[in-house]
Design brief:
45% helix; single chain; alpha+beta; 254 residues
Length: 254
């Protein structure tokens, strides 16, 4: 048990490109003790595991795995999103979706699957293949798939590059095999629509430029995550809200 948790902590430290000295500096745990923990010569307390996890920005679900590897009970819940214990939080997040009308907004899980969306999103999905709109709808796949939004995104290389950079960053942060699989899938889809990583953006923000029957709509997006989550199911949730990037798009939704 002790050796397992030490090895896992070392892997997380190395994934963050931190030396033992660097982790010691930010955690105030001596390098000697860190070394003993990582090699299994010292058994970390649950408080030590959680303290180091916080300094290493380890996701809650992985912190539970570290605790189990150390012989301790998990500390964080991992509920279903429709669990009664999360009802108040989910209701509040859905209120934010409606409050963002008339502009599009989505509530996404940690893998960019749609949990909920406001009514303005429907108008953007016209022409997408039905199988891509069957739950769970993955917005990354939807944007890059040649049967999805890709043919209507005027700046596809730029937008798909932006999405891939976000996903790669998340995959590095979580070390989650599912995130890594999504990276590979999106790379393959981007190649199909000839949309490799886009060039560096020269404007103030990356925009989504979507061609519609009413002309080209231009949006920029904002992302909001819960910073106080103590349940692993909530930690990965994020609100993706779209705002008009030009006057004609604002008039279209006004």
């Amino acid at each position: 048990m002790t050796a397992a948790v030490g090895e896992l902590l070392r892997e997380w430290r190395e994934s963050r490109a931190l030396s033992q000295q660097a982790l010691s500096d930010i955690s105030t745990v001596s390098t000697r003790h860190l070394s003993r923990v990582e090699t299994g010569k010292a058994r970390p307390t649950p408080q030590m595991i959680l303290h180091l996890s916080e300094q290493l920005n380890i996701p809650l679900r992985e912190r539970n795995r570290l605790l189990l590897a150390g012989g301790f009970a998990p500390r964080y819940g991992d509920s279903s999103l429709d669990d009664d214990s999360l009802a108040g939080v989910m209701a509040g997040l859905r209120d934010l979706l409606d409050a963002h009308l008339p502009y599009p907004a989505l509530l996404l899980d940690d893998y960019w699957d749609v949990v909920d969306a406001n009514a303005a999103v429907d108008a953007l999905l016209v022409g997408c293949a039905p199988h891509l709109l069957e739950p769970p709808i993955n917005v990354l796949r939807l944007c890059v798939d040649p049967q999805g939004l890709a043919p209507r995104i005027a700046n596809l290389a730029e937008w798909s590059g932006h999405l891939l950079r976000q996903l790669r960053h998340r995959a590095l942060q979580t070390r989650d095999a599912r995130h890594a699989g999504l990276v590979n899938e999106l790379d393959e889809l981007a190649a199909l629509v000839d949309a490799p990583d886009g060039p560096a953006v020269t404007g103030p923000v990356v925009t989504l430029e979507l061609e519609t029957a009413d002309g080209t709509l231009r949006f920029f997006s904002t992302t909001a995550r819960l910073t106080t989550a103590t349940d692993a199911a909530l930690e990965g949730l994020h609100l993706e809200t779209f705002l008009p990037a030009d006057a004609s798009t604002r008039r279209r939704f006004g």
